[in-house]
Design goal:
The complex is a heterodimer of chains A (183) and B (79). Chain A is mainly alpha-helical. Chain A contains six helices and two strands, in the order H-H-H-E-E-H-H-H. Chain B is mainly α and 79 residues long. In chain B, helix 3 packs across helix 4. Chain B starts with a helix and ends with a helix. Classes of the chains: A mainly alpha (183), B mainly alpha (79). Chains A and B meet through helix 3 and helix 6 of A and helix 2 and helix 3 of B.
Chain lengths: 183, 79
């Protein structure tokens, strides 16, 4: 008996699962049926990221780092740690956008491309928008957030591997998937 | 009392947790645990032994970091 041709979807399901895993860590695994793994990933990765933000403050999310100051000019470079942090979740982009908008330039103007200085307390006694972290707390906060992103990348790679592997036959709880027309 | 007042005045996310500035090594075991948990959750074929394997890997990571620290200290002190 000839089997019916099963139409392949235009966009493979793993693409949706990968995007879902970037939007919410662990969601990709949940969508593919690995619920328990997905929930564990969601809780552990989110806890790691939030802990990093609590330890070092929002200033650990920073796409620009200061290389040094020479002749009155401050050299800036892209912060490689930031690329790891972005892999966790799109919220990192929003936090970085807010952070860059709070920085001041030498004239005290906010949110300009050359703004590299942290905000200052207001003259009316109002505290600064945020307190930049320095030293160990900045290092560990950055490390926590970057590791959360890199581990999420690992989870996404695992997701792609699982979605391309043939579904195992599971008695009882799972369902046995067979191609139509194949005995 | 001063520590409590400082903690109550702390603005979460807007200020760093300065408590860990001197006690930064307290943050390494939770970090190792999170890395071990994610690794085992991805690599184990079934999740029955997840927590035992995670704890074993966490201890391994912490001991390896401590060992690397001791080795590097000896190296920097002897050179």
């Amino acid at each position: 008996m000839e089997g019916k041709q099963v139409e392949e979807p235009l966009i493979p399901p793993f693409v949706y699962a990968t995007l879902a895993a970037w939007v919410l860590p662990g969601l990709g695994h949940i969508l593919l049926g690995h619920t328990r793994r997905g929930v564990i990933l969601l809780i552990s990765l989110t806890s790691l990221y939030v802990s990093g933000l609590l330890i070092g403050g929002l200033s650990v999310i920073d796409s620009i780092s200061i290389e040094g100051a020479e002749g009155g000019r401050v050299a800036k470079q892209n912060n490689l740690w930031y690329y790891g942090q972005v892999m966790f979740n799109p919220v990192t982009l929003a936090i970085n956008s807010w952070h860059q908008g709070q920085k001041l330039d030498r004239d005290g103007r906010q949110g300009r491309p050359e703004s590299l200085l942290p905000p200052q307390p207001g003259r009316d006694g109002k505290p600064a928008a945020y307190e930049p972290s320095l030293g160990r707390v900045n290092e560990l906060g950055t490390l926590y957030c970057t590791l959360a992103g890199v581990l999420n990348l690992l989870a996404i790679i695992d997701l792609i591997g699982r979605s391309s592997a043939p579904a195992p036959a599971v008695a009882g709880r799972g369902r046995i998937v067979q191609r139509e027309g194949v005995a | 009392m001063n520590g409590l007042i400082t903690f109550l005045a702390w603005r979460p996310f807007l200020e760093p947790l300065m408590f860990f500035q001197e006690r930064w090594y307290w943050l390494l075991p939770p970090l190792a645990f999170a890395v071990a948990l994610v690794w085992k959750a991805l690599k184990l074929p079934t999740l029955e032994r997840l927590w035992i394997e995670t704890i074993k890997l966490t201890v391994t990571i912490v001991l390896a970091m401590a060992g690397a620290g001791v080795f590097l200290w000896i190296l920097t002190e002897s050179v």
